[in-house]
C-alpha cells in the first residue's frame, strides 16, 4: 500500500486525464455558429442622389488632323505644305475657335530636330489648342 515513486511498473499505473480535443471541437463549432448568427449592424446612410441627365450624343466625331514635320522642319497639314509659322498659327486659331476641337496628331521624322517640334507644341499651347498628341512609329 505504499507509494510507487520512481518504479517502472507501467501496468499498475493508470493515467486519469480528461481528453480536451472533443471539448475544444464543440466549443469552436459553437463559436462559429454564434459568429454566423449575430446580426450585423447596418451602417448605411440614406442619401437622396440627384437625377443626372446623360451627356448629349455627339453627332459626328471630331476631325483628325495630321501635322507632319520632316527633317528640314517643313510642316504639312493633312499633306498640304504649311509655308510659315504664321500660317501654322492661323490654322491653330481656326482649330481653337471650334467648340469641339479637332484632334491634331503630330508626326515627326526620327531625324527632325527637337526645336521644330517644340516650336509647334509651344504655338499650340499659346493658341489654346487642347487636343494635340505626338505619334510615334512604334
From TrEMBL:
Membrane topology field: Single-pass type II membrane protein
Main localisation: membrane
Gene3D superfamilies: 3.30.420.270
Entry keyword Chloroplast: no
GO annotation (BP), single: protein transport
Transmembrane segments: 20-40
Keywords for this protein: Cell inner membrane, Cell membrane, Membrane, Protein transport, Transmembrane, Transmembrane helix, Transport
GO molecular function: transmembrane transporter activity
Subcellular location per the Swiss-Prot or TrEMBL entry: Cell inner membrane; Cell membrane
Cellular component, GO, one term: plasma membrane
Superkingdom of origin organism: Bacteria
Known function: Involved in the TonB-dependent energy-dependent transport of various receptor-bound substrates.
Family affiliation: Belongs to the ExbD/TolR family.
Subunit structure, as described in the record: The accessory proteins ExbB and ExbD seem to form a complex with TonB.
The protein's name in its UniProt record: Biopolymer transporter ExbD
Organism the protein comes from: Acinetobacter johnsonii
Amino acid at each position: 500500500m505504499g507509494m510507487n515513486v520512481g518504479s517502472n511498473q507501467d501496468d499498475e499505473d493508470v493515467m486519469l486525464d480528461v481528453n480536451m480535443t472533443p471539448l475544444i471541437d464543440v466549443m469552436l463549432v459553437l463559436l462559429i455558429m454564434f459568429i454566423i448568427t449575430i446580426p450585423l449592424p447596418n451602417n448605411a446612410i440614406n442619401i437622396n442622389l440627384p437625377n443626372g441627365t446623360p451627356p448629349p450624343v455627339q453627332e459626328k466625331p471630331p476631325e483628325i488632323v495630321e501635322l507632319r514635320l520632316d527633317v528640314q522642319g517643313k510642316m504639312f497639314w493633312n499633306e498640304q505644305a504649311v509655308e510659315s509659322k504664321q500660317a501654322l498659327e492661323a490654322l491653330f486659331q481656326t482649330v481653337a475657335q471650334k467648340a469641339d476641337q479637332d484632334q491634331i496628331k503630330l508626326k515627326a521624322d526620327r531625324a527632325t530636330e527637337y526645336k521644330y517640334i517644340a516650336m509647334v507644341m509651344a504655338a499650340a499651347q499659346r493658341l489654346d489648342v487642347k487636343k494635340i498628341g505626338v505619334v510615334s512609329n512604334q
